[in-house]
Amino acid sequence: MEVLARLVLGLVLFEAAVTAPTLQPINYDLDNYAADTMEALDNLYNYENIPLGHAEVEIATMMPSGIRELLTPAPQPEEGEEEEEEESTPRLIDGSSPQEPEFIGVLGPHTNEDFPTCLLCTCISTTVYCDDHELDAIPPLPKNTAYFYSRFNRIKKINRNDFASLNDLRRIDLTSNLISEIDEDAFRKLPQLHELILRDNRIRQLPELPTTLTFIDISNNRLGRKGIKQEAFKDMYELRHLYLTDNNLDHIPLPLPENLRALHLQNNNILEMHEDTFCNMKNLTYIRKALEDIRLDGNPINLSKTPQAYLCLPRLPVGSLV
């Protein structure tokens, strides 16, 4: 079949060569270049002067499609190239599929509504911002979350599994929610948690907190007399800032960590203070250098009644001396 096709092709090409018109050379007169050129071109491309037979030969020089298909080898796929599927899966810009694990890694785990957390919130590197989204629960967070902000929402409870296995979590800020209940193990097992901010909520009882904390702000809650466990801050050797304003507390939670720098207890119901609240009365040479910011204003306590309690401090507490 291939030999026959080549023979037919040869005959067609031979006939076309024999019957093709011979073009006469054009001599240009430089003095009358424009006129001679235009006239020569008109004669050259005047198809009305071509005999009918020649015109037919020109048309016949097109290779029949059947012969062209026989002579043209089928294109072979390149090495390693796979054939396309009839129905291709939708792809993201980076080539991944929405069902692939990479998609989950970028947009985070899915919420209860099967919506990726990082589409609902804003994820920048290891920080997740969920502020002011009317959330009523903490959404599932990516495993590498280090900083989590979910302020000005409607979260009512923190469950024990909300932060489970988030070993890189360093800061939690849940300011201005409706939190009234926290499971006992909600924070305790977070090995890197340094900052916990729960101000402006409805918390009545603090759970056990990790000893890694350096910053705690639980201001404007409802802790009252029993909301803080005894010796709750004793083993927090790295704690620097403790803010417990507006909680209706009637006492200062003791003992206080040695490295504590700021203690804010304003606008509570603290009535009295012991002489060893801040100092060590058994060692009169003891000086607590770090604790230089104590706020007790807005309490019914008279600071002038316990002058021995401040001998070891670099500064006097702020509060009523009358």
From TrEMBL:
Its main location: secreted. Residues 70-99 are annotated as: Disordered. Keywords: Disulfide bond, Extracellular matrix, Glycoprotein, Leucine-rich repeat, Repeat, Secreted, Signal. This is Epiphycan. Pfam families: LRR_1 (PF00560), LRR_8 (PF13855), LRRNT (PF01462). It is found in: Secreted, Extracellular space, Extracellular matrix. Residues 1-19 form the signal peptide. One of its GO terms (biological process) is bone development. Residues 78-87 have a biased composition (Acidic residues). One of its GO terms (cellular component) is extracellular matrix. It comes from Erinaceus europaeus (Western European hedgehog). Residues 117-147 form the LRRNT domain. Belongs to the small leucine-rich proteoglycan (SLRP) family. SLRP class III subfamily. PROSITE patterns: LRR.
